[in-house]
Amino acid sequence: MRKTRFLFAGYGVMAAAILALAVLFVSPGSAAEYKAEYKLSTVVGKAFPWGAGAERWADLVREKTGGRINIKMYPGASLVGGDQTKEFTALRQGAIDVAVGSTINWSPQIKELNLFSLPFLMPDYKAIDALTQGEVGREIFKILAGKDVVPLAWGENGFRELSNSKRPVRTPGDLKGLKIRVVGSPLYLETFTALGANPTQMSWADAVPALASGAVDGQENPFGIYSGAKLDTAANQKHLTVWGYVADPLIFVVSQAVWKSWTPADQKAVREAAEQAAREEIAMARKGLVAPDDSTIKEVEARGVTIVRLTDADKQAFKKATQKVYEKWAKTVGPELVTKAEQSIAKRK
Ligand code: X2X
């Protein structure tokens, strides 16, 4: 009697063990199905806050998952042959697993992301935060979630400032005839055309040599990119106008197919790592740019770069000249989303 009971108990334990093993091997997201490497796409590498933040994310993920999830960064948009405007499509198609991407580069596929490129929408850093950390940010994350990616955190490329090799720019008239390299959204072509410049669209990979050779006179990018690429010495960009006409947030995402292959515990680790890396990345991107600490701007000035700081009154002329572009593109972005953004900014603390 006692022996039989013991036997049954023994079978029970065995059955439970077999079941547990079966669950381990069959359930989606079992460690057996993890890839040896997950490919993370960025446009710039670790000499820039953007790339450093992406790498930090990969390191934190490796640490938090005990090495189960091994993310490797591929900067230079190299997974799409340098064509950064194809990054989001490659992410959806599975050629990229993970990305820290710019709203500008993904805007050809997600029209709402043009919001951040509406000229003079965001007057300061609090305005960026009011969008990304509020209702507008949540709404955009919902849109992304419907397009085969899992958005995890907002990072920042930064306010895009204008540089050129020819002359200081303080009024729209100063831009007249300057050949300016712009990024992937047609909105930028229209903005610079409205300002009287001669814009030309090209990838970042092509931009630096084009500026260095003098084929192009100017460009617009955040301080982190300007300094990381040493545009003053490497690309003749001796004149810099701090006008903050648009700001470019970054988004930390994982492809949905990849996300689903991970256990809930690993998903949580990846999400927390993204949140932490993004917070640190934003701090890096803003370092020395936010009053009262403008040491980064002063360092650039000390290297012999002419810095023109536009006052609010100076900005009005640029704002006026680009008003029609704003209105036209607000329709593309979606009038409701734009109104919500304007209201969020008006209410910012
Ligand atoms: O191409 C650019 O200007 C850059 C590096 O800022 C982006 O990828 C949006």
General description of the model:
- The protein has 349 residues and is an alpha/beta fold.
- It has one domain: D-Maltodextrin-Binding Protein, domain 2, CATH 3.40.190.
- Helices cover 48% and strands 16% of the residues.
- It is built from 16 helices and 11 strands.
- It has helices at 2-26, 49-64, 87-93, 103-106, 125-132, 135-145, 186-194, 204-213, 223-228, 231-234, 256-260, 264-286, 295-302, 312-321, 323-333, 335-346, and strands at 38-41, 71-74, 98-102, 149-159, 161-164, 179-182, 198-201, 218-221, 239-242, 247-255, 306-309.
- Strands 7-6-8-5-9-11 form a 6-stranded mixed β-sheet, sandwiched between helices. Strands 2-1-3-10-4 form a 5-stranded mixed β-sheet, with helices on both faces.
- Strand 6, helix 7 and strand 7 form a beta-alpha-beta unit.
- Helix 2 (49-64) packs antiparallel against helix 12 and helix 5 (125-132) packs across helix 16.
- The longest helix is centred in the first third of the chain and has 25 residues, at 2-26.
- The chain is globular.
- It starts with a helix and ends with a helix.
- 45% of the residues are buried.
- Bound molecules: (2S)-2-hydroxy-2-methyl-3-oxobutanoic acid.
- (2S)-2-hydroxy-2-methyl-3-oxobutanoic acid (X2X) binds at residues 43-44, 84, 102, 104-105, 157, 183, 204, 221, 225, 248.
